[in-house]
From TrEMBL:
The keyword Lipid metabolism does not apply. This is Putative secreted salivary protein. GO terms for molecular function: serine-type endopeptidase inhibitor activity. InterPro entries: Kunitz_BPTI (IPR002223), Kunitz_BPTI_sf (IPR036880). It comes from Ixodes scapularis (Black-legged tick).
Length: 96
């Protein structure tokens, strides 16, 4: 009886010791931007009339000064760009 109890205690201790090995670890992913506006090409329009934000696949949402040209779908605010576009590659994390 004592031997059975000792073996049971040993197995429980081993199970608790192995538990940290099975916890999920963060994995960096890059599934690309989901919103078509996020992959719109940077529309260069010389001038300094307004500030817009565009999504750059390597560095995320970036600020740009624009002239008074027609808009190609870039974002008026940094918050809106970040809301609709994924973080820059290498900054996206999910638990595996």
């Amino acid at each position: 009886m004592k031997a059975t109890f000792a073996v049971l205690c040993f197995l429980v201790a081993v199970a608790y010791a192995l538990k940290p090995l099975t916890t999920p670890r963060p994995v960096i992913i890059d599934e690309g931007a989901l919103n078509p506006r996020c992959v719109a090409p940077l529309d260069k329009c010389p001038g300094n009339v307004k500030i817009i934000y565009y999504y750059n696949r390597t560095s995320g949402c970036q600020q740009m000064h624009r002239g008074n040209c027609s808009d190609n779908g870039n974002y008026p605010t940094l918050q809106e760009c970040q809301e609709y576009c994924l973080p820059a590659p290498g900054k996206q994390v999910r638990l595996a």
